[in-house]
User: Fold this.
Amino acid sequence: MQVPILDLKAQYATVKDEVTRAISDVCESQAFALGPAVAEFEKNVAAYCGCKHAIGVSSGTDALLVGLMALNVAPGDEVVTTPFTFFATAGCIVRVGARPVFVDVDPESYNIDPALIEEKITGKTRAIIPVHLFGQLAQMKPIMDVARRHNLALIEDACQAIGASQDGVKAGTFGDCGCFSFYPTKNLGGFGDGGLVTTSSDELAQRIRILRDHGQNPRYFYKEIGGNFRLDGIQGAVLNVKLKHLESWNVKRRQHAELYDRLFTGSPVKTPRIDANNVSIYHQYAIAVPDRDNLAKYLAENGIGSAVFYPKPLHVQDCFVQLGYREGDMPIAERVCGEVLSLPVYPELQPDQIEHTARTVLKFYGLH
Ligand SMILES: *Cc1c(COP(=O)(O)O)cnc(C)c1O
Assistant:
C-alpha cells in the first residue's frame, strides 16, 4: 500500500469540472490581474472568516510583507515572533528593516508561549506576529492582552490555519490583520502562488489595497511606495471554487487526526496538544518521536510519505547570525525540531491508509 504525504491529484479529480469552467471564464474575460473573480473571492473569504475586509495578494509571504508595511513597521523596530515557523514569518520582518525578536514555544502546542512574550518587550517593540502552527491557533487572549498593554500591532500568521477557530472565532480576525497563503499544499491551495490579508479596519484595508498595487492612488499617482502584490484572476477563480469545499475538507482532516490519535493512544508516540478552546484544521498531523530520522526512512521504505516541519528553528539560521542568537537560546523549539514528523492527513486519505501508517510507525518502535 502506498501512502503519499499529499495527493493533490486526488483533490483535483473532485473539482476538475468546476475549476476548469471557472478558469475558462477568466480566459474569456481576460481579467488576469485582480478583476471580478478576485473581488468575488475576497467577498466570500471575508464572509467565511467573519471579518469586514479580505484583500487578495500574490502569496502568504507578500501578505505578511504588505501587512507589516501597512502597519508602518520600519527600520529600528522590533517584532516579536516564534522561531518555530516557516521562514517567511521572520524573513518579512527583516525585509521591512525591523528586527525579529524570538520567543520560545509552548512545549505541548508548539505555538508561541504567551507567558514569555512580555519579558521580551522593549521601547522598540512595534508588533507581535503569532503563528497558528499546523492549523491550530496560538492562544490569542493573553497575546492580545500584551499587545493592548504595550500598544503593539498584532499580525496573525494564519497561513496554515484558514477555517481554524478559537472560542468560536476564526483565525485571522483577532489581530489588526490576518495573513493567509494559498500555496498549492495549504488546506486551501491555488494553482500557483496566492495569498490574502484579512482585516476589519476600513483604514488598514484601504492602505493594503493601495500598497498591493505599487502605492498608486489614483492610477499613476504615488504618495507612497508599495509593490506588485496582486492576486491573479485565475487564482481567484480557482480558489473561489475550492473555498466552497474547504469546510468539508477540514472536517475530513480532523476525522483522520482523531483516528491517528486513537491508534497512537497508550504508545510513546506523542502528538501536540490541541487546546480545549481550539478547533484545529490539521494543516499538518505532527507526531513527536525519538529516532525521528530513522522512522522517516523506515516509513519511506514501506511506501509511506512523511515530512519534517521544521528541521531547524529560525533563530539559528545562517541568514540571521547578525541577530546574535545561539544554540540553546530557544530550548523548546530546538528540541521539537529534532522530534517532529508530519504524517499524511490530506482529506482524500482512506481509513485503511491511516491504519497502515499508524501500524507501521508503531512497528518501528517494536509495538504492534
Ligand atoms: C506557507 C507559509 C507562509 C508563506 O506563504 P507563501 O504563500 O508560501 O508565500 C508563511 N507563513 C507560514 C506559517 C506558512 O506556512
About this structure: The chain is about 40% helix and 15% strand.
